[in-house]
Amino acid sequence: MILLNAVVTILVSASLNELLGMVNAYQLILMMPLLMVTLPPNAGMYFAQLMTIAAFEVFDTKPFLDRLLRLEPTDPVNSNYEAVGLESLYFLHNMGTLVLAFVFFMLEAAVSLLCRSSSHRKIKEFGDKLHKQLFWGSFITLVTEAYSMLTISCMINLRFLSWGSFSIGMMSVFAILTTLFLIAFPAYLGWLLKTNFQNLELKSFK
Amino acid sequence: MVLLQPIWFLVRRLLLAVMVVFLDNTVIWQVALMTMTVVTQVIILGRVEPFALPSRVRYELFSECVVMLVMYHMICFTPFVSDLEVRFRLGYSVCTVVSVHLSYSLGILLKTTLKDLWRMYRIHNASKEHDKQRTELQKRLVKRAPSIRQKRLEKRKRLDEEREKRENELLEEHKKKVLEEQKEAEDKAKYLKAKADLEKVRREFEASRPERDRMADYVLGPE
C-alpha cells in the first residue's frame, strides 16, 4: 500500500512537474519569494507547496552527497530561500535531483562514445543516433529547463565562496566553472542557432 | 532578430539570479531590474514576433502581466506596507493570481492534448478505411491478373519485335554506307594512281627534250 502510494505520488508529481516545466513563467514566479521581502504565512505556504511540485524531488540526494564529499551541513541564506527549497549554500545540494539528471547525461554521452567506436554496424548506428539526440534532445533541453535553478544555485555558492576543505574547495571550483559555462551558454546557443538557421526546419536536423 | 527570444529567455534568468543573490540589500534595484526584464520581454514579443501563432503571443503577454502583478504584490511585502493584516490579505490575492494563471495554463494544455487525441483518433480511423480500400483493390486486381498478365506479355513481345526490326534496318543502312565508302575510296585510289602515271610520263617527255632537239637539228639542218 505504501509502495503504491509512493508510485502514485511520483507519477502525479512527475506529470505536474512536466506541466509546470512547460509554463516558463513559473520559473520566474517561483523566483519572486527570493526577493528581499517578508512573505505572509499564507503566501509562503502556497509558494512552498508549488515549489515542492516544481522541484520534483524524487530522491533526496543531500545525504548521499554529504557522505561522498564529506560536507558539513549549512544554514540557508534566509527563510525565503528555505521556503523554495534552497536549503544550503552549496551548489550541488541546491541542485537536488538535477545532479542525477546531469550524471545520467554524462553516462549517456559515454555510452554514445563507446557505441560509436564499435566496429559492429548496428551498434555504431545506435551510437550515431544517440549522439545526434544527445545534444539537441537531452543537453540543450536539460540546460534550458534547469537554467533558473542552475544559475541561482551557482550564484549562492559564489556569494558565499569558501575554501575550508578540499571538498568545499572543489565545490567552489565547480560552481565557478559552471557559472562560466552558464554565462557562455546563451552566446553559444545564439551562435549555433544563427549558423544553422536555414536548417532548423529540416527533419534531419531535428 | 527572431533568435533574440531564446537568448533573452536565458539571459533574463541569469540576470534575475544575479539580482536576487547579489542585490539582496536593495529591494528597489531588484524591483527595477525585474520590471526592466518584463518590459524587455514585452518589447521582444511585440517587435520581433518570435512566435508564429498569435494565440501563443497572447499567452506570453498574459504570463508577463501575471509576473508583473506578482511583482507588485512582492513590493507590498516590503516595509512599504507595514500593516500585517493588509499583507495577509495580499497574500491571498497573490495566491489567487498565481492560481488563475496556473488554471489557465493547465486549461490550454488540456485543450491541446484533447485536440491532439481527437486528431490521432481521426488519423487512426482514416488509416483503417484506407487499409480496407486497399484490400478490396488488391482482391479485384488478383481477379483480373491473368488477362492483365497476358496483355502485358503480348505488348512486350510486340515491342521486342519492333525493336528487332528497327535494329535490323539500322544494321542494313550501316552496311550499305560502309560499302559506298569503300567504293568511293577505291575510285579515289585509282584516280590518284592514273594521275601519278600521267605525271611520270610528262616528266619523262620533258627529260628527253634536249635529245629530241638535237635530232631535229640533225634532220632539218641548222637554221
Net shape of chain B:
elongated
Whole-number tally of structural domains of chain A: 1
The CA-CA distance between the termini of chain B, in Å, is 118 Å
Overall 3D form of chain A = globular
Flag low-confidence runs of chain B. none
- pLDDT < 50 stretches of chain A: none
What kind of sheet is the major sheet of chain A?
none
Describe this structure in words.
The complex is a heterodimer of chains A (206) and B (223). In chain A, α7 (98-117) runs antiparallel to α8 and α8 packs across α9. Chain A has nine helices and no strands. Chain A has 206 residues and is an all-alpha fold. Chain A has helices at residues 2-22, 25-29, 41-55, 62-69, 79-83, 91-95, 98-117, 121-159, 166-195. The longest helix of chain A is centred in the last third of the chain and has 39 residues, at 121-159. Chain B is mainly α and 223 residues long. Chain B has five helices and no strands. Chain B has helices spanning 4-22, 27-47, 54-76, 84-207, 209-220. Chain B is elongated and about 165 Å long. At the A-B interface, α2, α3, α8 and α9 of A face α1, α2, α3 and α4 of B.
